[in-house]
Amino acid sequence: MFEQIERVPGDAILGLIEAFKKDTNPQKVDLGVGVYRDAAGNTPVMRAVKEAEARLLKNETTKTYIGSHGAPAYGEAVLPMVLGANSPVLSAKRASATQSPGGTGALRLAADFVASQLPGKGIWVSDPTWPNHHGIFTSAGIELHKYPYVDADNRLDFDGMLAALKKIPEGDVVVLHACCHNPTGFDLSQQQWQEVMAVLKERQLLPLIDFAYQGFGEGLDEDAYGVRLLAENLDEVIITSSCSKNFGIYCERTGCLILVAKDAEQMENVRSQVAIVARENYSNPPAHGGAIVSEILHDAELSAMWREELTEMRDRINTLRRDFVDALKPYGLDEKYACVAEQRGMFSYTGLTPEQVDRLRDEFGIYMVRSGRANVAGFSHENLPYLAKAIAAVND
User: Which residues form a coiled coil (predicted)?
Assistant: First the structure.
């Protein structure tokens, strides 16, 4: 029966990894893969994570299942991190946490929940958005639509976004990036979040907030502004949170699906349905990553260490953004690429065309997604002069 199965093209980013490995250019630069890198080009294990794992290894007594919703201690740690320690949503017991295999797993849970409990509702994503959003939602059988987010001049098109939201059918789901928009790096201001909230409320739209990069934009609490605003002012909100990036535990696949309901009773109804969705997908989530996060956030010393390390990573990325623009000044390109310094998170929508990206790869060994999305964490003070020279060459 397998004879009828056709080969399909591989993932574009994974293909970049293989091409980069084979490139013999000694000055090659990888700006494709979406992981944090330090000045040496490594994705380090955070000191707080190392210490937490040592404690877990010493004190661990079982490898039994942790249940479809995951370890309670994990939810107790993540909920206040996302919604705020003094959140009225938590006080009212309106929120439910379900541990998931990464933020991607949380998105899949959300997709299956919407498909089964809100049949016929469409889902709207920004144009552009993280490419895997398309696959996750369509594979769950949900009709996918787009709303504008970036204009032809590579700027945030908030007016176009807001106008489109006002036309979405009542009851549909709207996917919003909480911060560090992937792939563009363009985030909403607090005033813009308030305007979006008003439209969601008026149109009775259900927000699904993808919160994959908490702490990588402006700060843990600052990045959560939109999430907390919607959760505290709307009856129903879906949030998908990831600890993969801000704890640097990518391979441990540690995420969380958070659902906010109108009241505690409705939350329990929703929670019961999510347990079934999780059971049908993978039964139980992996335990180790959640245990690391829980150990850190429940310990004042480890939590302080982790926050300090996260601040170092965020500051490094934001500094590299400014330094990149400065490196382009001698070529007269600093104004053209000024948006890179204004964006936030690991990714930048540079404005480079697919043809320019191809030239950067073929002529200079600089690898990024053909949309022009670059992983800013791949910049370094050593490669910035080379990057600037190469970008100037493809802008001639």
Answer: none
